[in-house]
Task: inverse folding
């Protein structure tokens, strides 16, 4: 059950410390299931700034992967009885099923302000029968300091598929929107660094054949698919620990059109020689304004990342998008547009269609139109 100010977990979990990770905040009003199941949140405890969560329930069709990846969930209030007709479970039931610890009835906006002031924090979530004593608080603080930083974890290996597979989930051809069928059956290879299902669906809906490769894929694996284009997917963690993916991107440059998304943007940037840095508290949520430099249009974007790349010092790489909150690079282009990427999620729909043109641009690039 939900317990005021305490962790709520499945009865099978008996550990004293039931959740640990780096705490980040997300400003979403809706989409809590998509956020929980986004592999990019692996290793992180998720604080939802909007106070009401769970009001429309959860259903399997809305998941972005096979399971939730967030280490824990922190909410102000979790709705116990969802009101949507298609709901299959409450938030509490869903988290219990997947053994994800969570806490409710705390001031999540105060926690968000703390994170914005002090940066992302390592933390633990515990179930305490009584208010903890000073010595117990000291023990918990020491446990939080022992949490392994994201920069020292290979979370991509944890979230990626382990074998090549063709991804088939999509609308039937006869129901596919006519304006999206511009992929013309082209094969696209997607390297799974923690890919969201809606990225794969966005490619399939445009008439593309989608082959998903594990994170260990090298250039020979990509070649073997016969793909016309390569997508470097989103995923969790620090790109500097991903020597193999960066080398794959380096080898693919000039051989095949490339499209990077989120972590894939950072991987492509490093392959091109960019530098990277960790943001104080990352970009999380569905309200980030991004300006497209060539058109001046502002897109409202969905984001989930803790690192950024700087390409301004690279002579043959162009910054295509910029974050209007802090000025970081949100998109890049190289090799006359044959390789491009964005830091945000074009498959998500906060705009709701502000960024979907990127999939059309990629399929048009592959088709030579």
Result:
């Amino acid at each position: 059950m939900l317990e005021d100010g305490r962790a709520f977990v499945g009865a099978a979990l008996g550990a004293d410390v039931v959740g640990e990770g780096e705490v980040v905040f997300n400003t979403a009003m809706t989409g809590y299931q998509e956020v929980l199941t986004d592999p990019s949140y692996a290793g992180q405890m998720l604080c939802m700034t909007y106070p009401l969560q769970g009001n429309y329930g959860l259903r399997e069709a809305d998941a972005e992967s096979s399971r939730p990846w967030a280490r824990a969930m922190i909410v102000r209030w979790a709705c116990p009885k969802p009101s949507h007709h298609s709901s299959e479970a409450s938030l509490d039931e869903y988290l219990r099923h997947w053994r994800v610890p969570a806490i409710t009835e705390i001031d999540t906006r105060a926690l968000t302000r703390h994170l914005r002031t002090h940066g992302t924090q390592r933390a633990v979530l515990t179930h305490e029968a009584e208010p903890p004593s000073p010595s117990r608080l000291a023990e918990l603080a020491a446990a939080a300091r022992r949490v392994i930083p994201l920069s020292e974890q290979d979370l991509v290996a944890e979230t990626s598929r382990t074998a090549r597979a063709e991804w088939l989930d999509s609308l039937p051809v006869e129901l596919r929107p006519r304006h999206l069928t511009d992929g013309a059956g082209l094969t696209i290879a997607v390297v799974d660094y923690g890919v969201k299902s809606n990225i794969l669906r966005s490619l399939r809906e445009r008439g593309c054949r989608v082959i998903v490769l594990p994170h260990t894929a090298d250039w020979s694996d990509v070649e073997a698919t016969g793909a016309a284009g390569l997508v470097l997917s989103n995923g969790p963690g620090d790109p500097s620990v991903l020597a193999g993916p960066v080398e794959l991107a380096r080898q693919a440059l000039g051989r095949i059109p490339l499209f990077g998304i989120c972590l894939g943007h950072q991987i492509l940037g490093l392959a091109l020689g960019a530098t990277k840095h960790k943001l104080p508290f990352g970009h999380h949520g569905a309200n980030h304004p991004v300006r497209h430099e060539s058109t001046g249009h502002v897109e409202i974007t969905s984001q989930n990342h803790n690192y950024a790349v700087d390409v301004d010092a690279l002579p043959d790489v162009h910054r295509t998008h910029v974050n209007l909150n802090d000025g970081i690079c949100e998109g890049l282009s190289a090799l006359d547009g044959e390789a491009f990427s964005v830091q945000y999620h074009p498959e998500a729909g906060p705009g709701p269609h502000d960024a979907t043109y990127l999939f059309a641009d990629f399929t048009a690039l592959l088709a030579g139109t």
